[in-house]
Amino acid sequence: MENISDAMRQYMDKHQLNENYQRLMASVYQDPTVKAFLEQHRDQLTNDQIDRSSAKLYEFVNERHRLENGEPTFAPGYEPTLVLNDHLIEVSYKPTADQRAKLKQQAARKRVSSVMMPKLIKNATFDQFEPDEDQQGTGRMAAANQAMAFIDAYIADRKHFHQGLYLYGSLGIGKTYLLGAIANYLADNNVRTTLVHFPSFAVEMKSAIGNNQVAEKMDAVKKSPILMIDDIGADAMSAWIRDDILGVILEYRMQNELPTFFSSNFSMDQLEHEHLAQTTNGDVEPIKAKRLMERVRFLAREVVMAGPNRRPK
């Protein structure tokens, strides 16, 4: 096959095409990417087929220049590429590096389901989780290190059970944010997580009774590959929420060895004796509280987070 550029020049001269078109197409055929594509497929294309594809070649060069110059393009977020289709040249569009990163982030966010959780968890990352260590190893960084240890172990081996973390400490220390950072990191590694603000979830479950949606809503939570129960112990529980909602969820997750995280202002002992043992009716039921805490202790390891309140004053 003769030289592509010379052949096209002869073709344009032979057909006495107008000067503007010749100038326009000459620049297209001199484009390094176009020249390389034509050379790669020189045995698969005739001059006539190349001519019939001239509009596509022009589209490719024009769109790529627009993309390089930051101008509006035909397909925002996508870059043109040349392909051969049935002996004709076509333009295909593939995501740019920025678009691929954006699509990856969108896909990751879909792996994090939340129920009445604050917006801050959507963008929570370990990079933004500032250290605030103390000498006893109970600060934010110690908790973050244990969180990363869980992540590394879980990603390396998802077949076996891994205990989650029971994060407890004073208000504003960053417990909820850390849960969000863990969830987002796991999402980037194709792990689906559900975060539940438990006091709000309890209210939602009560409302679901009238709509016959209790089982459906509870299934979505209890079967999640990773479950994070935020702010447990913040509000007093009725016996029904404690036994038929929380108890059923934790029993299912214990039996199926599904990693579960918690955050609370109470230590495990405090949660058992000062919160779960007493219902909103004033009943004191230490045996039921103990049974529930056995499930919590099986599912998660207690981690204290100490330090100042970091919320804006």
UniProtKB/TrEMBL annotation:
GO biological process assignments: DNA replication
Domain Primosomal DnaI N-terminal residues, every copy: 1-93
InterPro entries reported for this sequence: DnaA_dom, DnaI_N, P-loop_NTPase
All copies of domain Chromosomal replication initiator protein DnaA ATPAse, residue ranges: 151-233
Origin superkingdom: Bacteria
NCBIfam families: PRK08939.1
Protein name per the record: Primosomal protein DnaI
Source organism of this protein record: Secundilactobacillus similis DSM 23365 = JCM 2765
